[in-house]
Structures are given as C-alpha cells and as structure tokens.
C-alpha cells in the first residue's frame, strides 16, 4: 500500500459489556474519527438467559454496524462463550465476521488436538456428573440428619453445601447444560466456529506468531503470547515466592476451602481426635463432629448394617466426591492456561494493549521463553519489554489471585499512563468466586500503578479491604487524587459509563 494512502491508527475505543462476570469486549480502531477496523474478544458471562443477554448483544451489533473484522475467542469457558449460545439467532443474522482468531488448541483438524479433546471430554462428563451427585447428596435430608446433634453441625453443613456449589460452578464453566452433550464442545464455541465463521477458515495462532500488514490496522503489529505448548506449563496455576500473588488471606465463613476446613480442624485438634475410619468410635466423643451413633462398632461391620434402608442416612456416600474439587481446579487451570493471549502494538509510539484471556501463571511464565527474534529477524525485543510498554491491561481471570503474575507480570507494567479493565460483576457471578475475586493484593497493585485508572465492570458490593468496610469506589477515587488535574480530566473525558457497557478511549 502506498505510504500516502495509509491511515495509521490514532486511538482505540475499548468497550466492556456489563453482561456479568465474564468477557465481552469490543475494540474500534480509529484513524482520527474514522473507524478502520473492529474486533470482538469473546462474548460470555458465567450464566444468563437469552432475555437478559439479548439487550447487550443488540447494542454490540448496533455499535459495530453489523460487522466485526476479527472475532477473537480466547478459550472454551462459558464466561467467554455463553453469549454466542444464548443469542445465536441475533448474532448469526445481525453480525457478519471478517475472520476468526483462536489458539492452536482449537484446530480440530489436528490429530493431537482431537486426541486431547476426546480425553478432555471424558473429564468434563465426569466432573459434571460428580457435581450433580454431590449437589444431590449434600442437599438431601439424609445428609443433614447425619450431622444432627454434632458439634458445629450448622457450620459443617454450610461448608459442604458451599463446597458443592463451588464444584457445580466449575463444572458449569466446562459443560453444556444437557447431560447427553457433556462430552462435546460448549454450544457457544461450536456456534462461533461453525455459524459465525461459516464463510471462511479460522486462524489458529501459536506463541511467537506476529500478525502485521492487516488491512485497516496500519502501523499495528499483534504479538501472540499464548496459548502455551507444553503440559508442564499448562498445568501450572501459580508460581513461588514473589512470582505470583497470594490468595486472599481471609475468607467469608461459608466460603472457606476444603483445605481451610481441614486446617481449622487440625489446629483445634478436632481432626486427629474425632474420626477413626477403621470403624471405632473416637476416644473423645465430645469433640467429634459426628455423634457416636454415626459409627458402627467393629463387631457389627461384618453384618453391613448400613445396607439396611432405615440406616442409609448413616453412610457418608459423598466423601469420594470430594476428589471432584481437585479435578475441577485442574481442569479450570488447564483451560485458562490455554487462553489465546494477544499484545497489540502501535509501532510509532510503541504502546501496547494486552489481552490475556484468563491466562494463569503457567501461561505468563511461558511468554518469557518466546524468542521473538525468530519471527522478528534482527529484533532484540523481549517479553519483558512488551510488558514494560503496556498502556492498557485487560485483567486476566476477573481479578482472581491466579490470573495475574506478579514479578514476571504486573510489576513489569510500568507505563505511567497504564489503564486496567476487569470483567468482575457481583450481580452475575458463580457461587464461591467472591472469596477469590477480587484479590486484594492485585487490586491494590493495580490502583497504585494506574493511579486509579482501573475500570471494573460493576463495583457494587465490592470492597477494597478484607473486612468489607472500604468500598472499592472510594479507594478508586482516593488513588485518582494522585493524578494531576490535567491527567484526571483527560482520563475522565476518555471514559463513557452506560447501563449496558463501559468504554475507554486509549490514544496511541
């Protein structure tokens, strides 16, 4: 293209739709006031009906004038693809797609991908069925009766029910709602691939790829940092020491983890003095969370009294299902770490926009192993330098502790004009996620680095402190006071907050 016909990008409008906890983000690239290119990154939230989501999708279609040049799907979780399923007719009829970008792990034509997805489908089905059975068990009268008369019965029952809710929430991220379809791709992902991208081939991207010379994106290069390519990295949720942020120290009473309950029992000497799974009653019955009648004497075990119908309530059939939590967490980290990660660079200014999907530590760590000189001959560029130049960061994994790396991630984003955007919304969120979202350490770091230029999808009911006394909005305003008057006015003018979305304009 002749130099005099090029239209270098001067600004980008980044719009986050308020569907609920999940990503649905559009980008409009502008040359002056002219929109030359558009992009949609994901379309999802953790749950929602067609009636509720359609208003967001209608506005999205209207704002994009019925066409998006690039549809980007980062990974196969409902909070990133559910909108495609719920609003299929609206999107298929109202939004044309120029091309679709996905990670290499979505290339169904590759034998290794097919093999992996078959195995993964079996795990999705197992998790979904375990979640259903666990939910049924802990909500049953039999299970509640099992705890009657024991110490901390209400607390234990609340814990198990919350535990079941959390496992169900993880299962819902991965599995379709119809039991017969658990093993296949999520309906939203299938619709995106087969219906929205039906007129062209999809682009499957891998780490080290660089996209450039894209029509409508003059002066723009896009670096692909993820999804990663080795299992050891895929399976890595967090780093050690100062590499990653720690989980919130204090949890709400009904939202502590299984390990936390065990720790509390051990600290109070309950765990070791209560349950003897050989069949004997614990020596200190007064401290047992189960009554003595919950255990059969060894002498009668041969008679299998628990097989009697009127004694069925004494069994703890759900114990084996607790392993479903381990499966859920491993599957969640695996899928998150397979997120397509894009760093969008504006060549003249060097500014970069970072969109990491829900990448966890293993993905962040792998970015630093990419040899960019292999795809950019003569370049001395490193991933650290990419992060140094980030001026916009879409916060990974809704402000949870495992979504943003510390020393090899956020602490490298040192541009003084950094803006962050987080897709967290307590109006629509999975049960149990509020204990990890927002992670207070990441939230504090973001507010400090952005001087309050941190946009959260919905700040209602969000608190800065663990004691839930300081509203996040108050702390955002406090940090914004660190900006000069001109900086604050420039930032305020760049943000549009609507009932359906919040939008920020980044000058590049």
TrEMBL record:
Superkingdom of source = Bacteria
Q: Would you tell me the protein name for this molecule?
A: Metallo-beta-lactamase superfamily protein
What lineage does the source organism belong to? Bacteria, Pseudomonadati, Planctomycetota, Planctomycetia, Pirellulales
